[in-house]
Design brief:
single chain; four-stranded antiparallel sheet; 4 strands; binds flavin mononucleotide; NADH Oxidase
C-alpha cells in the first residue's frame, strides 16, 4: 500500500490531546496543505482562521458542545459568502459547502501526516464563534478543526455496528 493510501487508512479523529503545543511550523504546513484542497470553480471561497492562543481556544471550546478534545491549536474553516455572491454563487448552491468538506479532509490528512491529531467539530454556536474571532459580515464559520498531539487513552472512537467496507458503500453499474 502506498503512503497516501496508508495515511488515509490510518487516520482517526483524535479527541484526547496533551498540552504540547502544535507549533507554528506544523500549523503553517497544515494551512499550506488546505490551500491545495479542490474547490468549486477553483474559486477558493474558504478562509482559515487559525489560533494557538490558550484563551481563545478556551472560549472556543465553551461555545462548542461538540468539542470533546482540549486542542492546543484550531483552524476554523469559514466560507466567504460575500465573495461567493460576487462570483455568482447563490446561497442555495452546494459547491461552497462541499468545499468545506474538501478543505477539512485535506487538513485532517495533512495533520495526520505530521503526527498531529485532528478532529472536526460542527456542533458550535456560529454566532458566538463569529463574535469571538471578530469575523466580518459575510464570513461564516462552518467547521472547527481541533489540533493537538494525541494523548494516550481518551474517548473511544464512535462505533456504529460492524465495520463498514467499501463494498457496503459501492454499486457498480454496467
Ligand atoms: C461534518 C462532520 C461533523 C463532525 N462533527 C463532529 C463533532 O462535532 N464532534 C466530534 O467529536 N466529531 C465530529 N465529527 C467526527 C466524526 O464523528 C468522525 O469522523 C466519525 O466518527 C468517524 O471517525 P474517524 O474519522 O476516526 O474514522 C464530525 C465529522 C464530520 C465529517
Amino acid at each position: 500500500m502506498n503512503a497516501v493510501l496508508a495515511a488515509i487508512r490510518s487516520r482517526r479523529v483524535v479527541r484526547s490531546m496533551d498540552d504540547e503545543p502544535v507549533g507554528r511550523e506544523a500549523l503553517e504546513a497544515i494551512l499550506d496543505a488546505a490551500r491545495w484542497a479542490p474547490s468549486a470553480g477553483n474559486r477558493h471561497l474558504q478562509r482559515f482562521v487559525a489560533t494557538d492562543d490558550p484563551g481563545t481556544l478556551h472560549v472556543l471550546r465553551m461555545v462548542s458542545p461538540g468539542m470533546i478534545a482540549r486542542p492546543t491549536a484550531a483552524i476554523v474553516i469559514c466560507t466567504d459568502w460575500s465573495l461567493a455572491a460576487d462570483f455568482g454563487f447563490r446561497p442555495d448552491v452546494p459547491g461552497p459547502w462541499i468545499d468545506v468538506g474538501t478543505a477539512a479532509a485535506t487538513i485532517l490528512l495533512a495533520a495526520h501526516s505530521l503526527g498531529i491529531g485532528a478532529g472536526p467539530v460542527t456542533s458550535f454556536s456560529k454566532a458566538a464563534v463569529g463574535t469571538l474571532l471578530r469575523l466580518p459580515d459575510g464570513l461564516q464559520p462552518d467547521m472547527i478543526v481541533c489540533l493537538g498531539h494525541p494523548a494516550a487513552g481518551g474517548p473511544a472512537p464512535i462505533r456504529r455496528g460492524r465495520a463498514i467496507t467499501w463494498r457496503d458503500l459501492t454499486t457498480f453499474v454496467p
